[in-house]
## 1
Amino acid sequence: MLLHDSKFTLIGWEVIDFLEKDQHFREKLHNTDMEDIKQGKLAKELDFVGHHVRTKLDELKRQEVNRLRTLIKAKQDAEGGHEMNHKVLLKQFEYMNHMNPHTFEVEDLDKLIQSATNDLENYDQKRHEEFKRYEMMKEHERKEHLKNLDEEHRKDEEQHYEELRKKHADHPKINHPGSQDQLKEVWKESDGLDPNDFDPKTFFKLHDTNGDGYIDEQELEALFTKELEKMYRPNLDEDDMTEMEEERLRMREHVMNEVDTNKDRLVSLDEFLMSTNKKEFLEPDSWETLEQAPAYTDEEMKLFEEQLAQEESNLNQKTSDLQKQKEELERQQEKLNAQKQCYHLQNVSIDS
């Protein structure tokens, strides 16, 4: 199988296995060589897979988070002197079958935790790159649309664009993610409790929704919904829901960087309580939203448009070459038909 290379991580294998079930992606995969895949040329095809496929990819990420939680729990048990059932772990993490099945130490778990964490970091990086491309493509298409308008309509479109941009930016103050003000707002609006009675330990337990003693990435992202609703509303032209999800991701990454001190992508109660004593929690800086922090630079946009122009040029050249090949085949076919007709007439003359 083309992609089943030993360098691929567990989540990488599962994602590719599932993507192959999508007809469009499967066709692209079978027409792409390994070097192009390694350079990421296949990744843009994710924009065209079905909604159910993207939903499954999100599910695979959640499964990887759960694997990570299982590993950390096993490590805690081992460090506490409790016996580990390493065969169960080996069964869940099938890519570990090259390891010694008879001995399984805390050191092995450390390596696996790092591997699972790296998988998720790569997933986030991929998400960032996809979003950057999405934003650049959106801007490119806007400019291409303007080129096709006359001066009057182009001016109207530019004015409309600026009005939408200002409407989107006109929203209530966004609390710094993970700050006291932000969590108190959740405590009041979502939990229905008095902000004056805010208690970090109680807050943690309320939002550790599965009760495992950690706030994971999905539980953390859910805390930002109220902030996001200030900026984004469905079905309004000025608000882009793809950008809303990227804003949620940025908030989650920021809080994880500030709070997750052991970098296991889970927030323990101790880590959470420790963060509430920091100056950043009590007196945070203002939060820089997406409209204040563009996803790409002018130079990146220039390179992107050059790449699109080159791709279009290559496509036009291929189209031209195929047309020439078609015309040549048609000429050859006409020549062959003429020869057949000539032979037929000669045979008829001889028979006569």
## 2
Amino acid sequence: MRLSILGIALSSNSYYCASLSLIPPISTSSSSSSSLSFSKKFTPSASGKRNLVLRGQSVGFESELKPGDLMESEKEFPEFNRNLYPSIEPYSSGFLKVSDIHTIYWEQSGNPNGHPVVFLHGGPGGGTAPSNRKFFDPDFYRIILFDQRGAGKSTPHACLVENTTWDLISDIEKLREHLEIPEWQVFGGSWGSTLALAYSQSHPDKVTGMVLRGIFLLRKKEIDWFYEGGAASIFPDAWEPFRDLIPENERGSFVDAYGKRLNSDDQEVQYAAARAWTMWEMMTAHLFPNNDNIKRGEDDKFSLAFARIENHYFVNRGFFPSDGFLLDNIDKIRHIKTTVVQGRYDVCCPMMSAWDLHKAWPEADLKVIQDAGHSANEPGIAAELVAANEKLKHIKKGA
């Protein structure tokens, strides 16, 4: 049986047991993007029209459209901006000593009296960038960026001592208190989504809403997929230089073999391993290769922090007590309004993790970008991230 709805042909079992909203392509530049949204409500499209929500059943599709729903949704969800905001500069910045060893860099931009939002960067070890500010309306948001331990401008650089997930969660709280913020919105992608989930589960009363991208739950199967040969089937050309740095007799665990080299007493050995590790990730982070991103792998300072800290966390499985720790604790944050944005062809953090999170947490909106990989800077992902912040802004204004 086939059913054609709104001009789109769907198999009756294509989306079994999932609420499906069909969203038209979103144009943010010369590129266009399309997404699937899994939720129980109408989702605003780029044109401002409401999208019909369908529920997949084993016997076909059942429409959830009811009389009056369109009018209600028009009131609830206006047309959201999906364009990145212009570049801005911080209005304040500084360094916060969070332990006897570590000092973290922080900055604030946007509206000093606006709604606070904290940006949690990826990696771990990736650090922040000025472009991270552009996902947020600077008239509404008080935008807080900080570099996690050992990353970016934080010191000491690439340091692994006292550098765990729980240390970072403590740092986030110390920064919140230092800036005298009672509660804030949390935004994180890739490893930033891992940290956002862990932080919000530890301090659910401090989080007003979340926007997550490229879900990474730091489970063994996710690490094995990307670092032990799974993703090599899609990027064999990028994989071979990463593989070939390691002798055949040590290839039983690339994560362990790289860990040995990234912690070598020989700095040149460290740098060589860091470049190879970082280049592998940068070459796979976009649906289409991005040369500017790939060049980051040639920066020894960036690569050393990025590779050493990532490897440190992965060897230690995120310092979580169990493989499914984040999924097992979803009940603590089920009430937090959250949007999850996931590229369909994300090789670094494949969609299986976002889907597992969606099944454990169906109350969160899942936006699947059909023509995107991992990077937050891909047009379709960037558009949905901005729109997700706009939605939380709209909710906050109406509260």
